[in-house]
Design goal:
Ras guanyl-nucleotide exchange factor RasGEF; about 70% helix; mainly alpha
Length: about 120
């Protein structure tokens, strides 16, 4: 019984880390994870005892769930502590100047000169 609850917990942990989709249109990855756990559940219920290979697969799935969670946390922390990492260089320079109390001068552009003439 403990093995089946571990499998359910692992399955839920993996689904938590995958991008959310409605149940009516699951992704192929959702379908594959579901089928893998469903196949494992039917095999373990038929034999009454979980095989060593099934335990190894559950352990791998647990490791994948932990890895996916760590990756999500890493991306969140990078966004939090490096807010300009996703900006282009011009915007990053402008925001850095504003951080120290300066405004960058307006740069002359060819298109503006033609419009004003």
């Amino acid at each position: 019984m403990a093995a089946s609850s571990t499998a359910k917990t692992t399955y839920r942990a993996i689904l938590r880390e995958l991008p959310r989709r409605s149940l009516s249109s699951p992704t192929p990855l959702h379908n594959r994870v579901r089928e893998s756990f469903r196949k494992q559940a039917t095999e373990s219920s038929a034999s009454e005892q979980i095989s060593e290979e099934a335990q190894r697969k559950i352990h791998q799935a647990e490791q994948f769930a932990l890895y996916a969670k760590a990756q999500r946390e890493y991306v969140r922390l990078v966004d939090r502590y490096n807010p300009g990492s996703w900006m282009d260089e011009e915007d990053r320079i402008r925001l850095t100047a504003r951080r120290v109390g300066l405004d960058l001068p307006e740069l002359h552009k060819e298109g503006k000169e033609k419009e004003s003439a």
